[in-house]
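Tutorial sheet, problem 5. The two components below are modelled jointly, 247 residues in total.
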Amino acid sequence: MPDQIQNAFRALADPTRRDIVQMLASQDMTIAQLTDCFDMTRAAVKKHLTVLSDGGLILVEARGRERINRLEPKGMAPVLDWLSFFDQFWDERLRNLKEAIERKET
Amino acid sequence: MTNAVLQKTIFLRAEPDTVWAYLTEPERLAKWFHKPERPLAAGQKLEMFGTTSGDLLIWGEVREARKPQYLEYTFTVKPMGDSVSVVKWTLEPVDGGTRLSLVHEGLPQGAQAFGLILALDNGWDEHFGKMRKALHETVDA
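Model answer (structure tokens):
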């Protein structure tokens, strides 16, 4: 599996980052604006944004003195797809099944 | 409506009867999937609830259950809306265990999986954590 998709799913594994993505889905936002929405420091928000950016899910764009975060539709494409979602979903479930069954039976 | 089909096959070091139990019994399903309220059997509704929210997350109906060979159920996840997909499990005895095949068909095409990810409740965060871990640890052959 390409690293990019792994990074995208990893980025979305965290509930705060999913919240951020959901907010950015409705509008572009600066770190300051995002920080206002969460009970955490600017540094913590920035860290989440870095993970999202590594996952190819957002783009950071300098606009004057501000840095605007916005969703990157191209990065979202693989996680938008049911097939790739369930591909990973079942791989993981089957791995759990194998582990559970063979721990018990051997 | 769609030809999207997923197929997976794994080999398990366990008899088909044991594998069957893991596919149908609540206590066993809880170990690797989601815990239904009652065992899966033909004609039964399939209902799996979020571990923390208690919301109904996955539902469907068991269409066929031939122990210990074949299990088929419809499968809808909350954000899939009205789409109904079908999950088919085939168990074949082989030397030393069971060959388990999964076919998941009728997946809607297009762009709503993201809604699924956003709609996941806390019970699924753990799944994602595991998924992430597994993705890290395994280099797919």
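Marking note: The first strand of chain B starts at residue 5 and ends at 12. Full credit if you identified this.
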